[in-house]
Amino acid sequence: MSDTLIEPLLLDPSVEAKAPVVSRRESTAIGWIRKPGLVIPVLIVLLAIGFAVAPGFFASGDPLSGVPADKLQGPSLAHWFGTDNLGRDLYTRFVHGAALSLTATLVAVGIALVAGSIIGLLAGFVGGVVDAVLMRIVDVLLSIPALLLSLALVTALGFGTINVAIAVGVSMVANFARVMRAEVMRVRGAQYVEAAFSSGVQWLGVLRRHVLPNSYAPVVALSAVEFGQAVLAVSALSFLGFGAVPPTPEWGSLVSEGRNFLANAWWMTTLPGLAIVAVVISAHRIGHEIERNNRR
């Protein structure tokens, strides 16, 4: 094509170069793909979820029965995590234990998210005496170490996976309440909220249409960050014997069962422990990335 044909096209104002439009969700997904450091954490978390959803697909053996002749065998192709003192395959027990451990984690995060959001919403939106009373309760919860509070609650509630989940969830409520309160107070002082009140909109309508939709995102991002901490707390209480009744496998109890065999069967504690650490670190990495993207 000659220059005389190209120049009119370049000078014609009706001919515009249109850049491809990329939505925020698509740009976030592209950003995640371009970060190699997130690939392994995402795969680890997805694998752990797969263990919980379909344990039989990843380990078809029986986690409760073993072969006495195979007891205390080291890691091998036949037994990836080795075997315990009863000849049970530790990899199979770890895979089947993911269902209870991750279920308790999800219940704990759900309790903390719902209860903390309600407390923070009321404190930030109503204010006054309600804010003062609720935040003093939150301050008391924050003054007690989370593991100690969980331990006290599960001792009062009794043993069991659900009780462990409730105890861990209550110990995490304060963090969600503070974040929700801060976001609600920020949105509460916005001009569009004041305009809604001035135009006669009832407080319930303002809360539903303006405050909640603009306040929940940081709290949801916090739940992703706290997921890894909840996995660690649930495993710790299970390690101390407050989880499911043996021989039902749980991640924390698997580590606990190998304490007496560290001298001649290091894999019983080390390999399940490293797997738990990998899940916790991966969940923290993903959660912080979600929180970082939410702030942009």
TrEMBL record:
GO terms for cellular component: plasma membrane. The keyword Cell cycle does not apply. It is found in: Cell membrane. It is a multi-pass membrane protein. Keywords: Cell membrane, Membrane, Transmembrane, Transmembrane helix, Transport. Residues 102-287 form the ABC transmembrane type-1 domain. The chain crosses the membrane at residues 38-58, 106-134, 146-177, 219-245, 265-286. InterPro entries: BP-dependent_transpt_permease, MetI-like, MetI-like_sf. GO terms for biological process: transmembrane transport. CDD domains: TM_PBP2. Belongs to the binding-protein-dependent transport system permease family. This is Putative ABC transporter permease protein. It comes from Rhodococcus erythropolis (strain PR4 / NBRC 100887). The lineage of its organism: Bacteria, Bacillati, Actinomycetota, Actinomycetes, Mycobacteriales.
